[in-house]
UniProtKB/TrEMBL annotation:
Annotated coiled-coil segments of the chain: none
Record-given protein name: SPFH domain-containing protein
CDD domains the record matches: SPFH_like_u1
Residue numbers spanned by region Disordered: 284-303
Chain ranges of the GYF domain: 306-354
Residue stretches making up the SPFH domain: 26-234
Composition skew (Low complexity), residue ranges: 284-293
Domain of life, per lineage: Bacteria
Amino acid sequence: MDFFKKIKGEFIDIIEFLDNNQNTIVHRFERYQNEIKNNAKLVVREGQLAIFINEGQLADIFSPGTYTLNTQNLPILSTLQGWKYGFDSPFKAEVYFVSTKTFLDQRWGTKNPIILNDERFGMIEVRAFGTYTFKVSDAGKFIKEIVGTIGSFTTEQINEQLRSVIVTRFTDSIGEANLPIENYAANLNELSEAIFNYMKDDFGAYGIDVTKFLIENISMPEEIKKEIFELSRLDKIDLNKFAQLKAAKAMEAAANNPSGLAGAGVGMGAGFAMANQFTQGFAQNNNQSNQNQTPPPISSTSVSFFVANNGQQTGPFDLTTLKQMIANGQLTKDTLVWKTGMANWESAANQSELTSLFGQTPPPLPQA
């Protein structure tokens, strides 16, 4: 009698799954010919669901707990197989264990650069990467849409598909945000939130719920990054002081010139010219933003004057333009002018560079 009891005990199956690598999303419990004995034990642990598939059709779903498999615990499967009065022989069904835990630290990134059209820098290539977390919210839908008949399904197998969805949504979001490229770093949280909201429906179609999404970095070409840094510095510094610093460095370099005094003289002159050329490009903008500031130095390679016109500072004008202004009556000998090196505004008649221009201008025609 004890022998037969022992043999009978061997037919009692224990169906369970222990995940050793923590990356398994779905695991199919393997049995010979998928046969499960009557009154087999099913153990579903926390963070798992057990799904029974009969002839390709989802039959029963079991939440965490321990179950004895019979007609009472398998109502749908019993109906599908026509068990009206119980069953004694083994029944066939596939059992899938689905992990419902949250899978952390999933990485995403752009394989190829994304091309954006920036208002200041034109067409730019950017890359991005970050992390996300997800979990299975609808086990039946996930098996139908993603797993199919695969015996074991891990995060590595689904990440490629999920990354494609993320990159597509990322591209759409930054295009619609229309942010200047230099403002991306300051708006990573806002972009992450926008993409997170877009992806909910995309992942939900697979029975997956994205629980967290983060953009860690948006990178751009090095030359664009350097140009942004330079522009940000120029917005903060005093251009006059910056020009003086450049000139001082040029003088120091000229003093260390091994070619002697003559070479030093050439070096000093080149240094002053370089400093003046650097500041000339910003002179007119500074003049418009603040009319009361002292006019910046002008390139020593071409004499230029600022002209007082109705109490307002205009210019700078080169000698050719000043000659035309004299001919048009816009500049007279009594007009106040200023150039680099002058302490105050003075009349045009006192400037040696301009006296010759007044001499070259023909007098008014005699009236008839």
